[in-house]
Structures are given as C-alpha cells and as structure tokens.
Amino acid sequence: MTKKKSKKKETQKESPEERKAQLQKLLITKREELLKEAKEEIGRLVRGENKELVETALDDGDWSVIDLAEDLNLRKLTIHKENLNKIDEALRKIDEGTYGICEDCGTEIDEERLKVIPFAIYCVDCMEQREKLEEMER
C-alpha cells in the first residue's frame, strides 16, 4: 500500500513554487561545483604545478607542451567564468519569474532540458536553428 502512495505522489505535478525551489537548488549546487573547480584550477596555476615541466623543458617541443597546458588551464577557467555568469543570470530570471522561457520564441523550455542544462536560454528547436545558422556561416 505504501508503494501505491509513493507512485501516486511521484505522478503529481509540482507546484510552481516547488519547481522554482528545486531549480534554484540545482543552479546553486552547479554554481558551487563550478566555483570549487575554478578555485582548484587557480590553485594549480598559483602553485605552479606546471613548474616541473618548465624545469625539465629541453627544446621547443617541450615548451609547446607547456604552453598548451597553460592555454588549456586558462580556457577551463574562461569556461567556468562563462557558466557562472549564465547561472547567475538564470538565478536572476527565477527571481523575476522569467526562468525557463525561450529567449527566441517565448515558449517554455522543456523541464528535462533544464535539468541537463539548468542555464539554458533557448528551447531545443530554437537552439537547433541557431546551430544550423552558425554552421552555415562558417
């Protein structure tokens, strides 16, 4: 009998407030994960974990590897910063009541998409159209 109750509870729709709280929690958790990763990356740069590579560099090939490693670390930090900005924007939209609305067509973004990409600003259809346009422009 308990199983039936729990199944019934699962199929019931969440209230908008519950959905909002759940999405805020998801975004805040993702934000904390990104901040932790960024701090670790910064720590590695500050500690000079690539310093061993620098000390053992013998030729231009070694220096290329060092440059590539530093570029990758900086690119990771840039991606973290961009995602943190997107999350902050999504949190602002939740407070305003505009979260989950496609910025192109104005329809509601699918909840499954938001669970995967909580800071998505386009529905799947609009995102696909944008990607096709970008591909054609290349």
Layout of helices and strands, plus pairs?
Layout: H1 2-11, H2 16-47, H3 51-56, H4 60-96, H5 111-116, H6 124-137
Helix pairs in contact: 2-4
Structural account:
The chain is built from six helices and no strands. It has 138 residues and is mostly helical. The protein folds into two domains: 16-99, Four Helix Bundle (Hemerythrin (Met), subunit A) (Up-down Bundle); 101-138, no CATH class.
> What's the CATH superfamily of the largest domain, by name?
DksA, coiled-coil domain
Radius of gyration: 21 Å
Percent strand equals under 5%
Count of folded domains: 2
Average pLDDT rating: 82
Order of helices and strands: HHHHHH
User: What percentage of residues falls in helices of 4 or more residues?
Assistant: over 70%
Entry keywords:
Four Helix Bundle (Hemerythrin (Met), subunit A), mainly alpha, single chain, 138 residues, disordered N terminus
Produce a short descriptive summary.
With 138 residues, this protein is mainly alpha-helical.
